[in-house]
Amino acid sequence: MSVAERIAIVQERIAVAARRAGRKPDDVTLVAVTKTHPPELVAEAIAAGLTNLGENRVQEAQTKIVALAAARQQVRWHLIGHLQRNKARLATELFDLVHSVDSLRLAEALQCYAAEAGRRLPVLLQVNVSGEASKEGFALTGGVANRAGLDALLSEVERIVALPALELRGLMTVAPIVAHPEQARPTFRALRELGEELARRFPAAHWGELSMGMTDDFEAAIAEGATIVRVGRAIFGPR
Ligand SMILES: *Cc1c(COP(=O)(O)O)cnc(C)c1O
After folding, report:
1. Angstrom distance (rounded) from CA 46 to CA 24
2. Distance between CA 239 and CA 224 in Å, rounded?
């Protein structure tokens, strides 16, 4: 099957999941995750009409962004993996949306470089609501029911929303690997509820985006309100 055919299938599955949840297919953005795949394959996805591409490493993304420079105006590059502060400047130059802001210190570094570059950088806050030790993100095991955790998070978010060169758009999470995608739903629901709580606490910031759901669980994420799904293997095959 070609990349174009796989994209069509994923987009149809997104549309079905959205309608089933009483939502519009257009309310869910597909980010094609291109990590490990060569620029030629990414070019096929762009030719098939995909406009949102995700990478989880800055250096690898840079190589592809340079190789695909001719298409730069047509596409939006998303950083979805952990960002080290020593790569924050480069990330600010390369990406249209950073999903993986996972600490106040990283947010402050991005603020500094974005301000220097004279731009506002769109970002999401990555939150670990499942409690898995292996997961990046602000820790909020159990979601908003965890009052002590929520208070700690709120005091950090209060400082992040005050950073003028960052344009907060919402939240991102990675669900645990589970036997059945339905088992990931509590994680996705917890992120949505946190977004609602943050919208109440910080109404001047934007909390509308929920980046959640990958190849194995994007339909469950859409059922819980995902506005961005990050899909790699279903489009490009195994890594
Ligand atoms: C690799 C990756 C994805 C895509 O995973 P697939 O299972 O290939 O769809 C999504 N999000 C993050 C953060 C990733 O690292």
Report:
1. 23
2. 27
Indicate whether residue 211 lines ligand 1 (CB < 6 A).
Answer: no
Rounded to whole angstroms, the Cα distance separating 120 from 205 reads 14
Residue 230 CA, ligand 1 centroid: distance in Å: 6
Give, for ligand 1, the residue of 80, 130, 134, 214 to mutate: max count of ligand atoms closer than 8 Å to Cβ.
214
Q: What is the pLDDT of residues 56-102, one digit of tens each?
A: 999 999 999 999 999 999 999 999 999 999 999 999 999 999 999 99
Show me where the domains of the chain are located.
Answer: 3-236
Report pLDDT digits (tens) over 132-169. Answer: 988 999 999 999 999 999 999 999 999 999 999 999 99
CA of 150 to the centre of ligand 1 (A): 27
Measure 231 CA to ligand 1 centroid, in angstroms: 6
Work out which ligand 1 atom sits closest to the CA atom of 80: 13
Instruction: Enter the CATH code of domain 3-236.
Output: 3.20.20.10
Are 228 and 31 a contacting pair, CB within 8 Å? yes
Does residue 232's CB lie within 6 angstroms of at least one atom of ligand 1? yes
Judge if the beta carbon of residue 56 lies within 6 A of ligand 1.
yes
- In sequence order, the β-bridge partners of residue 54 are 33, 78
0.90 exceeded by the pTM?
yes
Q: Is the CB of 230 under 6 A from ligand 1?
A: yes
